From TrEMBL:
Residue ranges of every copy of the YdbS-like PH domain listed in the record: 94-170
Residues spanning the membrane: 42-66, 72-91
PANTHER family: TRANSMEMBRANE PROTEIN-RELATED (PTHR34473:SF3), UPF0699 TRANSMEMBRANE PROTEIN YDBS (PTHR34473)
Top-rank taxon, per record: Bacteria
Entry keyword set: Membrane, Transmembrane, Transmembrane helix
Name of this chain's protein: YdbS-like PH domain-containing protein
Listed InterPro entries: YdbS-like_PH
Length: 188
């Protein structure tokens, strides 16, 4: 199939089918673990929330605002606490990879997910951290695609220095790509 650019020249366009054997494999990716402090931070964050909720619930029960039934309280703590305590092993299996053309993030204990964002589709990159992350020396890297309101790829639990280096690396690659496309004058 041929297309005719605005300057009247005929450019060849191809969109050949790839065989399944020619596709790159995610199994060959060299995965990087998150910072070892990240799972502890997740556990402390979750346990701190439930401890606070328990103290507030106990205070309301002692004030007579809500009924105090030990079996109900224990049941609620078990049902609501299980996801909190699964946060620790879940945080331990999260990992990321930086490749030449893309960035990958893998997560999940029971429901596994691998997110891949092509480097040339990244429009905006930022790092952020809350008070607990700052205490542990961690940042979250967020990559946004064109036109998106939400981050297309989020990597939590990176060491602060590594997160900034990774952000700068991606920005430098983006600048190199932009410089390369501006230098093309379209004559091929």
């Amino acid at each position: 199939m041929t297309t005719r650019p605005d300057n009247g020249a005929i450019a060849l366009f191809s969109n050949d089918t790839l065989s399944n054997d020619d596709l790159p494999s995610v199994r060959d990716v060299h995965w990087q673990p998150l910072d070892p402090a990240y799972p502890r931070m997740v556990l402390i964050s979750g346990a701190g929330f439930w401890l606070f909720a328990g103290v507030v619930g106990l205070a309301l029960a002692l004030a007579g605002v809500i009924p105090l039934q030990p079996a109900l309280v224990l049941g609620l703590w078990l049902v609501l606490g299980i996801p909190t305590f699964l946060g620790y092993p879940s945080a331990r299996v999260k990992r990321y990879a930086v490749r030449e053309q893309d960035l990958l993030f893998h997560e999940g204990l029971l429901w596994k997910s691998t997110t891949v964002i092509p480097r040339n589709r990244i429009q905006h990159i930022e790092t952020e951290n809350g008070p607990l992350e700052r205490w542990f020396g961690l940042v979250t890297l967020k990559c946004y695609g064109a036109g998106g309101q939400q981050a297309d790829l989020v990597i939590p639990g990176l060491n602060e220095a590594l997160g900034e280096r990774l952000r700068q690396h991606l920005l430098d690659q983006q600048a190199d790509d932009d410089a390369g496309t501006e230098g093309d004058d379209g004559d091929a």
